[in-house]
User: Fold Short-chain dehydrogenase/reductase SDR from Rhodocollybia butyracea.
Amino acid sequence: MSERLAQVSGHLSNAYGRGLLAGEVAIITGAGQGIGRSAALIFAREGAKVVISDIDVKKLSDVEAEIKAAGGDSLSVAGDVGADDFPKKIVDATVAKYGKINHIVNNAGFTFDKMLHTTPDDTWDIIMRIHVRAPFRLIRQAAPYFRIQKPEERENRSIINVSSTSGLHGNVGQANYSAAKAAVVGFTKTIAKEWGPFGVRANTIAFGMIHTRLTAAKEAGVTLEIDGKKVALGIPGAKAATDPAAQSGAAYPHIPLRRGGTPDEAAAAMLLLASPLASYVNGHCLEVTGGAGI
Assistant:
């Protein structure tokens, strides 16, 4: 966690006693690196018991070790969020250890970019499976722990689904990803309407340029293996956060803040929506973009 974010988190913890999410239980997918890792760390710092998942067992183990070294409480459930048995596996493990679920952060995902006319069915289907079907199945599995009938038994509970500016505005080479991330927004609004009467809040975050492996230079050759296929990650010619052009703002003339965001900044927006500070925010799509697209 960055020093600045640690300072902000520390101030919040002081203001809210044991932390904004003290005693609450949060499932965070895709927590082995990037935004998911940052979210796991800041949620734990704010008092949450975090159940983290990732397809990369080693990276997941490293994040769990970080959380526990800082005095946090964490449970790792490794696996592919798109697997048929994953929702039951992680929900059962969470309830067995902690007895409840307060928050689900559907963060896991990746891009598989191709121009529309060259996109085969399997490239379309896998993005839909991970970004739309997987969050739907996890949330449905956890329904008994959110649809609590008695108001006096309800705690702070929320669903946070990750979208993208690609889902709001479309993006060249991302017909599959844009369609999936647009679907996430409508899906989340439906949850807000169906589960709002149970005191559950459901919100979407649409991220813009956040410095992760998905937005790094494609030329770096980073790949992800899914269903036996290697998926090339990144954006052709993208500038790293440390690049002089990025630091001067020249690389991002379309972003009013003239820079990309960090995973910690992205995770802070997740914390906001999960916390009591957003207790009357429901069905909203929060754009975390540095002002791009306004």
Observations:
- The first strand starts at residue 25 and ends at 28.
